[in-house]
## 1
Amino acid sequence: MNGGTADHWRAVAPGRVNLIGEHTDYSGLPVLPIAIDRAIRVDFRVVGEAMVRLDSPVPRFSPFAFQLKRPIEAADQGDWSNYVRAAARGLLEHGVELRRGIVGTVSGDVPIASGLSSSSALVVASALALMKANVVEVEDGKGGGAESGVGPAAAGLASDEDGMGGRAEGSVGPAAVGRASGEDAAGGHRSGKAISRLELAALLARAERFVGLQGGGMDQAACLHGMEGHALRIEFEPLRVTPVAVPAGWRWVVASSLERAEKSAGAREAYNERARQCREALEGVGGGYRDLVADSDLDGVLRRARRVLAPVLFRRFRHVVTEGRRVALAEEAMRNGEMGRFGDLMVQSHVSLRDDYEVSTADLDEMVEVALEAGAAGVRLTGAGFGGCIVTLCDEQAVAPVTDALATRFYAPRLGGPPGRDVMFAVKAGRGAGVEELAPPRRGESHYPC
């Protein structure tokens, strides 16, 4: 890497589709997503001033600028610049010196507010751009399955203070994730800074709480560790990522409910409430979620929980422990090429999200029914819910009947025609985030805003 002012770069960070393991990462349980072949891109040049100035071709996203100095203040709630500010804040709190800045343009093809993690992709892309500008290397480490030594605090699972001045869960920074190699034991900086992908995923999970959402660490880990043709088993406490090959012939189709799932706006409080309810339920039952999921007598665990928990807390608890069990069974089914079994587990997951976690909607439920009746092997809402998308599992022969049924029975009455390419589309498991060099713009042209 070099950080001269003539450098032109593109930071690329994929969205993700969670195949199974919904609303479990912030309880420390494994998840099974894929990074997808759609991404957020930040085309940028490095500037000598410690500042960020970005724009977007999307009219609703106004240009913005801010200085790279602590404390980085939040913009208005719901402002898209808060995701970029979160990335900068996380790096600064980790001890990274951001002496150079970036000027550029944000674009991409991950649908916004659809439960496909466009926001986390923007956080990751922004962090990679700032790291490139400041000559901070990203170390790949040992690859899938390697433990980082990153514990619950770094992964956003134990708590300190959030970016808005309130109480949150976990403290990122040198003490939480282990110091970046650019910081010595006394807190001073030295040359040769580097951050591993696992460390970066952990610190960005914590940093994204700057927007006020009490999430876990799945999205950032999936974005940074994506591998073509593979799902990712992501575990927490410590953070670990293990690739799982997707069998040949398995096809994934994502379809939007046309209901926006704004993590920084309307759904935020409902999401945070469920995270609080999971903690409260665990306090009532006792033990840890991982041990409870691994208990050979899960029915006994649920009977005990029903006796001590209020009905709402019991339903939240039941979703978390049964979803945790489904993730392990789904990974086994994927490794064995058992599409039917994997699909059944997806449907069970959706029913639990609908009835016990109460994050589905009437439109998402309708889409699930349409896809199953048309021949999908499995289907469920993906992402936090409260709108967003479904993900369907099909074999090659079922893709067309499923998409045709959704187009005819769900979209045509609502849109008056077929869905667009950002409404229903096939996805593949793609590679993780990175930075690539761009050719300098020709005379009279520019990659960037003036």
Note: Residues 1-6, 142-192, 444-450 have pLDDT under 50 and may be disordered.
## 2
Amino acid sequence: MKKLVLVFVFMLTLTLAACGTSLPNLDVEELDVPAVPSGLVQGVTATEIKVGNTASKTGVFGAVGVPFSAAIKAVFDAYNAREDVIQKINYITYDDATDPSIGQTNVKKLVEEDKVFALVGHVGTGTVGATLPYLLENHIPMVYAATGINQLYFGDTPGNPIFAVQPIYKTDGRIAYARAINEKLFGANGDQKLASDAKVGVLYTNDDAGKSIAAGIIEEAKNQKRENDLIVMSFLTDTTESVVKSMMAKNPDVIIVAGNQAPFNEALIALDDQGSKTPVITSYVNTNASTITVQEYGFDVYGSAWIDIVDPEGTAGFAQSYWDFANLMIASGNAQYAANAFAMAGYVAANVFLSGLQRVEGELTFETFIQAMEAGPIDVPMGGEIDFSDGKRWGIASMALSKLVYTAESVGDNPATADVVETDFVTPASHAFVKVAGIQSLDEIYGR
């Protein structure tokens, strides 16, 4: 009888979670921000400004850190080459091998031994989350975090040295949910909105990234009074297959996958292996197709994007801001990253830092740099603008929507050999994200 009661309680818990009446509380407390002492500075001389970061150049996320760091270096090298620049940027970067403990060690080395003025492009969810209190305590400016964990969100903290640029995951999750219930992506022809009582499945990784995105999804569902239609399940690497089976058994109308690149890819493969036909929406961190296994999935895959490089009137259909980036990558010997989303992110990080730096009038200190960053909106290359004024630390709050488009393997002529006609040249299968909706805020998505 006792075993029967336990089984009943377990099944009841699953039912409650499925209908949204027992949703997990995934919010985090906002960190304290100590005041920055006037005149405090390090890493600055008459001829040099030291900045640095730690990034995954090897390990699971090496494909993120290498192009990201290469783009930052390219921007700073171009800046240093200008004749009017007296204080050159000395960019120091270390490899943390995708290990947060090494990342923490590297950050302390940058601050305490290298004496950097700022971190530019702080990489890795685990490293960023673990080092934020340390950076705040030491008043070190941080411009751009290559993650969106909710610890980066600060509502009203003037003088805060933390400047996250890319969207905070809570915002990311809110926008993903808004897209799910508002976009005409569904039905036999992919041109219908979901019904008002449609079930929205949420698969989130049980880590800072997944929980942060899922927190935003849940918040937005509550805002729309549709939380009872959520089906929320967490997964780990060794539970992906079983959790996907459980999710599919609930028959959701759309599935939002909340997590970073590797687990997202595992979830996609598991869904495809199980024969899922349910459309998937994911975070902006997963819209670099190079991190996704190339195959023809049995369902549509959509992802948010805060960088928009498409301009129908631009050269070859791309915006001039993209060509500025691509030309710099080519000129710096990094042509292989001219279309890489992580390199674009590094390019943005370095340029936003330089925008703040060039606003400083008089002596450069932590305080004057922070004031310069807060002086007004800053243009974000390929991504609109961001406003840190009045202590806003919200990250970018508007995003586009892209769809993963598959191109099958083909056999025929080699386009690289114009003077020879071939019939057996194999072009391998590929895929890419293609924009289906432009950059929009939540209000714009809802038509408000």
Note: Residues 1-18 have pLDDT under 50 and may be disordered.
